[in-house]
Amino acid sequence: MATLIATAVPVTHAGILGLGVYRPRRVVPNAEIVDAIESSDEWIRTRSGIAARHWAEPDETIVSMSVAAARDALTAAGVRAGEVDAVVLATSSQMVLGPSAGAVVATELGMEDTAAFDISAGCAGFCYALADAANLVRSGQARQVLVIGVERLSDLLDTTDRGCAFIFADGAGAVVVGPAEQEGIGPVAWGSDGSRTSAIKQDKDFLEYFAEVAAAEASGGTSQRPYIRMNGTEVFRWAVTFLEKACRDALDRAGLTAADLDAFVPHQANIRITDALVRTLGLPETVAVARDIIETGNTSAASIPMAMEQLVRSGAAGPGDTALLLGFGAGLAYAGQVVHLPPIA
Ligand code: UT7
After folding, report:
1. What SS3 state is found at 2?
2. Which of 61, 217, 234, 321 lies at 20 to 30 Å from 276 by C-alpha?
3. Residue among 30, 123, 127, 270 flagged as catalytic
4. Entry pTM
5. What is the pLDDT of residues 271-301, one digit of tens each?
6. 123 catalytically annotated
7. Catalytic residue at 54?
8. What does DSSP assign to residue 186?
9. Which of 197, 236, 293 for mutating ligand 1's site (highest number of atoms within 8 Å of CB)?
10. What's the CA gap between 294 and 104, in Å, rounded?
11. Residue with CA nearest ligand 1 atom 14
């Protein structure tokens, strides 16, 4: 057997060097969507915490929102696009399977011959991508990695679906991961349960949709594009019973306890899930808790970087603070890690 040489020189520590976000221009308050779902502003606020969300306009694409967020992340990190060795982009709402959005984003940012790929892990996507990026940096395989979480979930929304129409939203968040003097990204606690895909999923694939369109054309009937569907109660129960363990696992792996935390940034799924986790984890009142869902809705893979940005921008937490991140959702996939919060642009 030939001996392979490992050319990569490992580095000891990785950290998040900078953070940027993109919030779509169009703000959609509850009042704009309640009639189509026979709901009310009060019901939505009480049951989910959401007051408004941003829905992207046609020019605010997965690529353009990613590029805007990435530019700010690079500025905050003091890193030039040319210094980035890899782009890892998490999304579940890119409507083309190829090329990867990551490759297009890398080129639009002026990168040349940069490794780039997309990952799909639902609302856990950003934390999965962050774990991958930290490992790429620590192994020496890449020095600086751009991690992006981005969604245009409004493209997958049936605006008459009472269970989804008020929840999902659009946006992008990006971070630069690179070498750090001390560890800034703890080991990830992650998992999935593909036997429970019916809890959140796209209701049909595109081949089924095209067959439906052809049949509708032949018969004069109607067809419906693929939409995201969710059994909210099932996901809610899973979140408030299972995810405490994931949080404790992430803390254990980082060698910390809840008392060491300055901030908690869970996926912005439902403010009641956030509140339940704060209670079961026994987080001290001094811990700043991200509640970006109020103005941003649930942006799936983009929600954690967007919520981190909101915490830092508001001054509730600051760069260098110790934060527990927790992504969870479709697949039933989850991923959590403790990080030091980055500077924002
Ligand atoms: O990002 C991926 C992860 N996603 C999540 O974590 C989402 C988790 N799930 C949830 O956030 C919640 O389940 C929802 C916010 C989606 C729904 O809240 P809920 O408290 O679980 O509502 P429910 O489905 O149990 O419905 C309670 C009541 C029902 O009426 P009755 O039977 O009690 O008379 C529903 O018909 O609320 C009614 N209802 C609504 N009323 C007004 C359901 N949807 C609506 C609505 N507006 N949109």
Report:
1. coil
2. 321
3. 123
4. 0.96
5. 999 999 999 999 999 999 999 999 999 999 9
6. yes
7. no
8. P
9. 236
10. 32
11. 232
